[in-house]
Amino acid sequence: MTWVVENSKKVAKALTRLPKSIVCALILLERELESSGPVRGNWSNYGKLGDGRHHCHLKKGKSTYVAVWIEVRGRVKVIEVTYVGTHEGASY
User: Fold this and answer.
1) Cα torsion through 46, 41, 82, 76, rounded to 10
2) pTM to 2 decimals?
3) Contact criterion met (CB below 8 Å) for 81 and 91
4) Where are the alpha helices (DSSP H) in 15-65?
5) What is the pLDDT of residues 38-88, one digit of tens each?
6) Per-residue pLDDT tens for 27-49?
7) Can you list the domains of the chain with their CATH numbers?
8) How many CB atoms are located within 10 Å of the residue 21 CB?
9) What value, to the nearest 5°, has the Cα angle with vertex 88 and ends 10 and 41?
10) Nearest CA among 59, 56, 64 for reference residue 38
């Protein structure tokens, strides 16, 4: 069972400004989303935000980085990463 993971335009733009370690963590998360689906309880501070939205921490501590993704409605097995960045700017 494979999922298709897409990045929003906002995430694609943010990837050029993020630290390399955060980009690597996001790539790892996206590979897990592709193979295992949107529920990722093995990631730090994973939480379901309701109505097909999920988030987790990519890095804890000062400057906590998070990722937010949604299950795209109307498209079978598609996940879109809608935000990656610091916790303060997260789109919860």
Assistant:
1) -150
2) 0.91
3) no
4) 20-36
5) 999 999 999 999 889 999 999 998 889 999 999 998 778 999 999 999 988
6) 999 999 999 999 999 999 999 99
7) 4-89 (3.30.2310.20)
8) 11
9) 80
10) 56
